[in-house]
Structure formats: C-alpha cells, structure tokens
Amino acid sequence: DTAVSQTPKYLVTQMGNDKSIKCEQNLGHDTMYWYKQDSKKFLKIMFSYNNKELIINETVPNRFSPKSPDKAHLNLHINSLELGDSAVYFCASSHPPEADTQYFGPGTRLTVL
Amino acid sequence: GNSVTQMEGPVTLSEEAFLTINCTYTATGYPSLFWYVQYPGEGLQLLLKATKADDKGSNKGFEATYRKETTSFHLEKGSVQVSDSAVYFCALRVGGGADGLTFGKGTHLIIQP
Predict the structure, then answer these.
(1) How far apart are CA A93 and CA A70, in angstroms?
(2) What whole-number distance in Å separates Cα of residue A81 and Cα of residue B109?
(3) Does the beta-carbon distance from B93 to A50 stay under 8 Å?
(4) How are the residues of chain A apportioned to helix, strand and coil, as percentages rounded to the nearest 5?
(5) Residue pLDDT, tens place only, B3-41
(6) B46: which chain A residues are within 8 Å (Cβ-Cβ)?
(7) In a mutagenesis test of the A interface, which of B44, B45, B105 is the best target, namely the one with the most A β-carbons within 10 Å?
(8) Residue B44 with chain A: CB contacts under 8 Å
(9) If you count Cβ atoms within 10 Å of the first and of the last residue's Cβ in chain A, which end, N or C, has fewer?
(10) Which of B35, B46, B52 is nearest to B90 (CA)?
(11) pLDDT tens profile A18-51
C-alpha cells in the first residue's frame, strides 16, 4: 500500500517538449508539495498546495504548473522543457495536526536531451 | 529568509563508530526541525523531528536536540552500521498552512565494514 506514489519513475524526453508527472496520495492528506532535487542532491520546494492556497516558489519558471484534479492528486506539468530541468522531482503530502511531517513519494527522474 | 547549513560530505566512518552530522539554521519565526534520510535510489523518509526548543527527536538509534541558543540540530548516533549509509538532510519548516520544507544540501554518509 504505497502512501505517496508518482508516475512515471523515469522520464526521458527532448528539449521543447511538454510533459507531466503524476502524484497520488492515499493518506487522506489535504496538502501536497512538489520538490526538485538537482544533480548535487540539493532539494528545493517548488509548490505547496491545499484546497485553500497555492504557494509558488518565486524562483520556479512559469513553464511549471501544478494541477490538482482532486484532493488526492497533484500533477506537475512542464512546458517547453529545457536541459536545466533535468532533475529528480519529488511529490510529498501532509495533514494537520501533524502538518510538520511530510511523506515523500519515490521520485521521478526527468532527463531532458 | 530561511536557510539550513549542513556539514559537507561525504562522511566516511567505520562500522560501530560514533556519528555526528552538524546542522545549523536561520529562520524567521520559530521553526520545526527535521532530519530526513534518503537511501540509494529511494525517496526521502522522515528520520526524526523536534518542534520546540530543547526537544529531542530520536529514532533507530539516531538523536538530535533542538538548540535554540545555538540555532542547531546536530544528528548523532552512538554506533553506526553499514545499513546507515545514505544521504541525510536537515530541514526546517516555519508557519502553518501549505508552507514547504527548507532543506540543507545533504550529507552523504558512507559506513565501511
């Protein structure tokens, strides 16, 4: 029973393409997140989203957009992919009162050629 | 802004050695502090956390104490095992709502038999 799942696990694509990464959580959490981990393992928050607010890290290009069809899903859409977008992307979720504890998915390794 | 500084790695130790991984932070407000661990090829797992000053988080033999006076949250283990080899991330979170985690750059720990 995977708590936070992501698909695909690996994604290889060409520059300029548009792609999506899906995230689903079965924990009943109301807040979901996307993080980017670069080649040096540095993790950075991209988006936080619950049914009340979307918080966007100001450094994230507007080619990236989160889409939430329902409370259990937060998908990441990326337009016009660039070489620098190559990274591992992690989805996470949390829920009050333990909102401090975030549960991470296994990650999606995106390679842009 | 918020930031987390960890000691640079990799850190290489022999099995049964004592481990310390230093972590200091700067934060606007009163953060909760975390250690996450990432095993090779996997996502992040919460190792331990502390939500207020002088709290001690502990799990699997690892400990860290929230020191407000020194703005630190150093990770320690008395006797490491080969299976502890992983990347360890110190992180903080300030505020409520949908705020994400701010991570340090990670410390790669290698335990040799």
Answers:
(1) 14
(2) 33
(3) no
(4) 5, 50, 45
(5) 999 987 899 999 999 999 999 999 988 899 999 999 988
(6) 101-103
(7) B44
(8) 43, 90, 92, 104
(9) N
(10) B35
(11) 999 999 999 998 889 999 999 888 899 998 888 7
- List of residues 6+ apart from B63 with CB closer than 8 A: B48, B56, B57, B75, B76, B77
Tokens of A58: 């100001």
- Interface residue of A102, A103, A108, A109 to substitute, partner B, most B CBs within 10 Å: A102
Polymer length of chain A: 113
pLDDT at A71 over 70: yes
pLDDT beyond 80 at B111: yes
Q: Contacts of residue B109 in chain A, CB cutoff 8 Å? A: none
C-alpha span between A40 and B35 (Å, rounded): 18
